[in-house]
Amino acid sequence: MKPKGASFEIVDSHWYIESILATDVDFGYDGKLYISDWVDGWNGPGKGRIYTFKDDSQAKAIREAGTADLFATGFDQLEPGRLGQLLQHPDRRVRQAAQFELAARNEVKTLTDACRQRHHQLARLHGVWGLGQIARRNQDADVSRILRTLLGDEDAELRAQSLRTLGDVYAADDRQSVDALVAGVRKGTPREQAFAAIALARPHVSGGVDALISLLKLNDNADPVLRHAAVMGLVGSASPNALAQFAQSDSAAVRLGVVLALRRLHSAHVAQFLHDSDPFVVEEAARAIHDEPIAEALPFLAALAGESPESMSDHLLRRVLNANYRIGGPSNAQAIATLANSDNVPDHIRKEALFTLTHWGEPPVLDRVTNEYRPLPGRSLESARDAVQQVLDPLLAGPDPLRTAAVELVSTFRLEGADAKLLEFVQQSDEPDALRAASMTALAAVDSPMVTAALRSALDATTPLTRIAAWRALASRDAERTAGILKEVLATNSSTADERQAAVELLAASEHAAARELLKEWVNLLAVNASQVPAEIQLDLQLAGQSAGLLESPTLDPATVTPEELLARYRFCLAGGDVERGREVFFGAAAASCRRCHKVNGEGSDVGPDLSGVSKEKDRAYLLESIVVPNAKIAKGFETAVFILDDGRVLSGIVKGEDAESFQIATPQGELIRIPKDTIDDQTTGRTGMPEDLFKSLSPRDVRDLVEFLSTFKTPATATGAHGKE
Prior knowledge:
Elements lengths: L1 E3 L2 E3 L14 E4 L5 E5 L11 E5 L2 H9 L2 H7 L6 H7 L5 H13 L3 H9 L4 H18 L2 H9 L6 H14 L5 H13 L2 H10 L8 H12 L4 H14 L2 H5 L7 H13 L14 H13 L6 H5 L11 H14 L2 H11 L6 H12 L23 H15 L5 H12 L5 H9 L5 H13 L5 H9 L4 H12 L3 H13 L5 H13 L3 H16 L9 H10 L15 H7 L9 H10 L10 E2 L2 E2 L9 H4 L2 H9 L11 E6 L4 E9 L3 E5 L5 E5 L3 E6 L14 H11 L16
Antiparallel strand pairs: 1-2, 3-4, 4-5, 6-7, 8-9, 8-12, 9-10, 10-11
Helix pairs in contact: 3-4, 4-6, 5-6, 6-7, 6-8, 7-8, 8-10, 9-10, 9-11, 10-12, 11-12, 11-14, 12-14, 14-15, 15-17, 17-18, 17-19, 18-19, 18-20, 19-21, 20-21, 21-23, 22-23, 23-24, 23-25, 24-25, 25-27, 26-27, 26-28, 27-29, 28-29, 31-34, 33-34
């Protein structure tokens, strides 16, 4: 890294250690780097690993510097002079321990001498920090005087750290220190300005606010760290009323800084900036009001929905929309409906508006913009019904997929007057399948007199979603006829997997005798000869049979379960899964933690085998066994070997290489070890690092979806090195 403005920039970035999931890292007194790995997530199996890595030359230097001996004997018995010398030690931990000991003894003179010597910068900085410790503990005014004497030093970093420390210890009525800090803001290097600005974050400090505002203006948003420092100074030194006066500043950088300060103060004055001439300032004001949130200002943000939404950025428009959703009154519903119906608003925002209306009565617990847990209370659909009804007709005449979302509103609000249009959608075979299915569902939801006509068309549709929607609608109206249709669906080879799974679901939900008998027949067939049952509904039938009491629901004891029992439980998970849900299990399910060790198509980790091409040569049975019984077949290159040597030692690790004379293994500590073959008495295979108890956290449906997801990967990843380069 090298200095850049008030902070630093990275000039050299490369991997030091790869293919490890570190949960903590620390250096030992022996010069080694210690890394812990919990193996299987935060709520894992109660086991972990600790790896060590070392650079021989660095480890030797640390040993020769006597770090371990110093910490073994302690610092409390050392003379102040010796402690002062240790402020120049090459090991930061030693320097810090010496500093802390000197501060604990109130050794102002020794620390001051360290600050004033010229040949060792780090010792000078530790002297400054130690003086700060003393002053914070003892309220020693003399320390402030000593620190002020260092502000004229030629070392810019010493000046910066002196300003920083002075900011921690000065008294608000210490005019000399206040003037020194104001001077640091106005005339120092960017790093000095940043520390001095933060130090001015105290109320009633004369001249501080003017200096901070000037800093914002001069910086002109060039250095975000410097801007942040000025903002933090204003947060501590200026009142919301005082900050609001800068809404008319001719500097956009000043107005932005004030918005950021008002956000931290949770002040409703930030609403004044929603009509700023700079779009970026407006966006930041909206973020402050929405994301914090600042409840008093939320209505002002919501009101922007009526002010040229077509000119708003996506960030702003989403927050305006969600502000109306969160307030949730009739006028807010009207504003959302108007956005949904506006041709000047992007389609994805219109879809979001329709989503919020569809979920008006039961809002999701996660915020629609920030994805934070911000639950809203349930509310009556009546407060939004009129607004939705007014825009329904133009929405139904709009583009796809907005029409489908609008049709779902009919189901949610039980709206009237759209029956003819919905019937038209159902009857037109060239309309999208999702639109026809949603229309069939909506007609059934409102119990329209046109349901019968819609069913005639939908039951004969050539598209599966529409047919499935028709079966669901028919099930509550003519259970016997529905059972007959489902019987044919299950018996017909041309039925899709979705149709067969929907048929099993509907049979399981039906109380009709014919449906119960048909379910029993298929469950019995599954029990007697599962090969005669389509693979994609085997799991559905098993679960339905267990729920209906037709099949036993075996309980597996984690302490005694056998691999055969595990495979038996999941034997019907080979087909019929949902790829998208499987993706969620792989990348999103904390219980599975697949991505912690595996990678697919460049996403995930390199600890375990890359699964990008796992299905090119492996079938679904292999995938299932690898998930459920991971030690049955361990991927080549990831086997753990255990060696018993002729001297009694036992070594284990992943075999990384073998020649005529030796094995090369990577130990659990991360070390590469060569084991001569003539020293080996016995050798066996260890177990995989993959968790063996996934059955406790993944349902059979989860496993089926995961198998379906992994079965799509048939293109092996190209071998790459660090940072993706050969």
